[in-house]
Amino acid sequence: MGKFDKYKIDLKGMHTDSARYEFLLDNTFFANIDSPEVQKGKVTVVLSIKKSAHAFELNFQTEGIVWVPCDRCLDDMEQPVTSSDKLMVKLGRTLAEEGNNLLVIPEDEGVLNVAWYMFEFVALAIPMKHVHPPGKCNKAMSGKLRKHLRTTPDDDSEEFFDEGPALTDIDVEENAPTDPRWNDLKSLLNADDN
Length: 194
Known about the structure:
Elements: E1 8-10, E2 18-25, H1 27-33, E3 40-51, E4 56-69, E5 76-92, E6 96-97, E7 102-106, E8 111-113, H2 115-125, H3 139-149, H4 159-162, H5 169-175, H6 180-193
């Protein structure tokens, strides 16, 4: 028996118009997928299938927690994930993807392994930025990072770690010294306006 055999759905053999499956994606599942995005987690996926005359509509409801590295201190942190995703599947001659969320599987097999799709939906539900709440990062790593972020030897600024107001483009623009060459270019633009 393969690692992902329990995630195979026999669409061709469905005798009713709908079916419901529930899967628990645990640390073993993520270790078997062997992807750097997520290595540990506990996620429940409820899969509802509706059969129509020409296609199958698969609805995935995903909810749980995954452990991902903090972007700031690199320690593992809990990241809640929730998503609702839909995949349309048709039976055809060969395996193919047609457009967004439409998959064609060979009719002679009629079986779809949903393991990779569930993993992708979990990975896509993880926010781009994941950091510990203020004060929860690894203290040793935060200290090293703070040391390298100092602009002067006696700068003990905690701004980066306090999650204070972020610098906007306007703040950076007002505080940054202007390259004198830009003034020359601006004068050329102003000359064209006259």
